[in-house]
Amino acid sequence: MQNKLSFHQSSVRLEIIGLPDYSNNENIDQISIISQWKLTIVDKPLIEGKIEHLGPIMDAFYIYSNLLIKNEIPIYESKLIDIKADNLHIHNIVLKSSKANVKPLVLKIGNSLLSDTINCFDQLNESPKVRIKKTDTPNIIPKKLKFGLNKKVKFFNFFIPPFFAICSLILFSSSFIYFYSPFENIEKKELTNPE
Amino acid sequence: MRKSYVNNNIKVNEFDALIKITVEMSKYLYPYIREILKSKEDIKDNSIIWNDFNKRFIELIKERFNIDSMRVKKLLNQAENGEIIIKSLLILSFCISNQGYQKLKNFLYNF
C-alpha cells in the first residue's frame, strides 16, 4: 500500500506517491521512496514523471523565478526543461521527454500559475512527511551582502563627522590668508617712502 | 522617498520586524495578490481589478511619498510603473511559505 500526499495552492496541485523507508524506522505515513509524482495545473495537461525528474524541474522553477525578479534575462534551459518569458506576464515552459520520438510538451502559464507552482514546491520542501533531496533554494545570504547592510551605516556614521570637521577647518582657516599679509605691507611702505 | 523631513537609517532589528510583518500580510492577502496578477495577464478581458489596484496604489503614493523625487515620479507614471508593481507582487507571492521570511530577506538583499 503506497502513501499519497497532496500539496495544493489555488489552481495547482502536486501529488507525491511513495513508500516509507522501513529500514530507517520511519513512520507508516512518511514518504522517502518516491515512486511517482504528478503536477496538475488547471486547464493545462498533466505533468508527471520519475523521481529523478522532480528535483531538476523544481530547480528550474526556482532559478527562473529568481531571474525574473532580479531584472536579468529570464531564460532557463536544460536537457529536461526550458522556461522562457514571452513577456512579463506569460511564461513559456517546454518539457522534453527522455523517450525518443515523443514530442516536447509546451505550456504557457501566467504569473498567477507560476506563483502557485512555486508555492506547491515550497510546501513539498517544507513538509516533514516527505523526504527528498532538498533543492538548494538560495537561503544563505552572501557574506559580502551581509557585511554591506550591517556595516555600511556604521562606517559612514563613524567617518563622516570628522571628515566634515576637517573640511570646515580647512575652509575656515584658508579665508584668513587674505586678511593680513606682512610682506605685501612692507613692500607698499617701501614704495611710498623711497628714502 | 517618503514624505518626511527626518532621514533616519533603519536598524537591523526593525528591518527584520518589517519583513516578518510583510510576509504575514502577504500570506493573508495571497488570494488578492493572485487576482491582481491574473487581471494583468489578460488585461483586455479582465482589467477592472488591475485598474482599481493601480489607481489606489497611485493615491497612496501621492499621499505618503515625496512626489518631487524622480524615483517617486516613476512610480506615479502609469506607463512605467507596471513592471515595478508586477515584480513587487511576484516577490510577495513567492514568500508565503513558512520559510517566506528568509526568502523575502534574500530577495531584498539581492534586489
What can be said about this structure in brief?
The complex is a heterodimer of chains A (195) and B (111). By secondary structure, chain A is an alpha+beta fold. In chain A, 40% of the residues lie in helices and 24% in strands.
Structural overview:
The complex is a heterodimer of chains A (195) and B (111). Chain A is 40% helix and 24% strand. Chain A is an alpha+beta fold. Chain A folds into two domains: 3-140, no CATH class; 147-192. By secondary structure, chain B is mainly alpha-helical. Chain B has five helices and no strands. Chain B is flat and about 45 Å long. The A-B interface holds A 10, 65, 68-71, 88-90, 110-112, 114-116, 118-119, 122-123, 125-126, 137-139, 141-142, 145-146, 149-150, 153 and B 9, 12, 15, 31, 33-35, 37-38, 40-42, 82-83, 86-87, 89-91, 93-94, 96-99, 102-103, 105-107, 109-111.
Please outline the helices and strands.
The complex is a heterodimer of chains A (195) and B (111).
Chain A: E1 3-9, E2 12-19, E3 33-41, E4 47-49, H1 51-69, E5 75-77, E6 81-85, E7 90-95, E8 105-110, H2 111-126, H3 143-174, H4 182-192
Antiparallel strand pairs in A: 1-2, 2-3, 3-4, 5-6, 6-7, 7-8
Chain B: H1 12-41, H2 48-64, H3 70-76, H4 81-94, H5 100-110
Helix pairs in contact in B: 1-2, 1-4, 1-5
Distance between the termini of chain A: 125 Å
Strand line-up in the sheet with most strands of chain A? 1-2-3-4
Helix content of chain A: 40-55%
Q: What is the SS-derived class of chain A?
A: alpha+beta
Mean pLDDT of chain B: 88
Total helices of chain A: the number is: 4
Rg from alpha-carbon coordinates of chain A: 34 Å
Largest sheet of chain A: 4 strands, antiparallel
Instruction: List the helices and strands of chain B in order.
Output: HHHHH
Which class do the helix and strand fractions of chain B yield? mainly alpha
Residues in helices of chain B, as a percent range? over 70%
* Poorly predicted regions of chain B: none
C-alpha-based Rg of chain B, rounded: 15 Å
Distance between the termini of chain B: 17 Å
Portion in beta strands of chain B: under 5%
The chain pair forming the largest interface, with residue counts per chain, is: A-B, 31 and 33 residues
- Sheet with the most strands of chain B? none
How many domains make up the 3D coordinates of chain A? 2
Which whole number gives the mean pLDDT of chain A? 81
